[in-house]
Write a structure and sequence with these properties.
By secondary structure, the protein is mainly α. The protein has a domain of 79 residues: Serine Threonine Protein Phosphatase 5, Tetratricopeptide repeat (Alpha Horseshoe), CATH 1.25.40. Helix content is 76%, strand content 5%. Helix 1 runs antiparallel to helix 2, helix 2 runs antiparallel to helix 3 and helix 3 runs antiparallel to helix 4. The N and C termini lie far apart (98 Å).
Length: 223
């Protein structure tokens, strides 16, 4: 009888502990929701850690934590969590994107490029392919950049895509197709192919006549 009572007591404690963890987790989820609503990312981050402490199987919260760190520009932490998630699922496109953006923001184009090169075959996203081209250019991998630019022109998503670019501290949204022509022009110019460069910049302006960056590049060649 004593053992039966002990078993019942332990079961009761375990049941209460489970209920407590569930209630605590739900409370912290509400804290997270309100913190995010008010832009209090520090409180939201702590809430996620509290949720994971009581409900470690709710793995999607680790994704949220990585995104939250990236949003706060805490890139080393975002990378650490994304690496843990990718180790469990190498095709996790969200975490690969976090890696690519974090490495780029930290000034590590090589690692960013590696992440984008894993990401793009999974997503076929035209913007991811454009990121590959721009990073290749930044690393002076000019021939690879030109090959990627050709792939961009063949991409079915290029026609409707638009991108926000900065020129002289001014942001401008332009068709991605124009941006690709512009980067081809810059590469041709760096390879001392002036006529090709001029033609690419003119193509960019044909697509987007007000494209300030392409205009600036063309005027620089004339000057």
């Amino acid at each position: 009888m004593r053992y039966l009572l002990l078993f019942i007591s332990l079961s009761f404690i375990a049941c209460n502990e489970g209920n407590f963890k569930s209630e605590f987790s739900n409370h912290k989820k509400e804290v997270y929701r309100q913190a995010m609503q008010n832009g209090d990312y520090e409180v939201a981050t702590q809430a996620i850690y509290d949720i994971l402490a009581t409900q470690p199987s709710e793995d999607e919260w680790r994704d949220s934590l990585a995104l939250l760190y990236a949003q706060q520009k805490a890139y080393p932490q975002a990378l650490k969590i994304s690496e843990q998630q990718i180790a469990k699922n190498p095709t996790d496109t969200l975490m690969l994107k976090v890696q690519a953006l974090s490495y780029k923001s930290m000034g590590n184009p090589k690692k960013s490029l590696e992440a984008y090169e894993k990401l793009y075959p999974l997503t076929q996203n035209v913007y991811h392919l454009y990121e590959i081209a721009t990073i290749q250019y930044s690393m002076t991998r000019l021939q690879e950049c030109l090959v990627t630019a050709k792939s961009l022109h063949a991409h079915e998503g290029l026609g409707e895509a638009r991108i926000n670019l900065n020129f002289n501290q001014q942001n401008q949204v332009v068709p991605l197709k124009a941006a690709v022509y512009n980067i081809q022009g810059v590469v041709a110019k760096d390879l001392d192919k002036q006529a090709e460069a001029k033609a690419f910049f003119e193509q960019a302006l044909k697509v987007a006549p007000d494209f300030a960056l392409a205009k600036g590049n063309l005027e620089e060649m004339k000057g």
